[in-house]
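ugh ok fine here u go
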Amino acid sequence: MQAGETVRFVFTNTGAVRHDAFIGDEAAQDDHEMEMRGSGDMGDMGEDGGGDGHDSMSDEGGITVEPGETGEITHTFAEGDELLIGCHEAGHYEAGMRAMINVT
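structure:
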């Protein structure tokens, strides 16, 4: 990624279980993981208030995508960003469901 670049990430859940996508640095990922463990459920992360997270963007950097649905996150990257996109449904992040994004 280039600094100042805005990217639209589109997530299509072709599986049978709910997933989420959360953008943040390692500390933010850790905080979100703790929140998820505490709540036991993603709930509504989409700003559309619909509860399913599809076809919405979140101002918190995350969405929930139900099976068979598609969701998106748009993010503008700053120089030096070292961010992750992680799924924090139960056990997913711990199992390695994450991607590193480096910005130059």
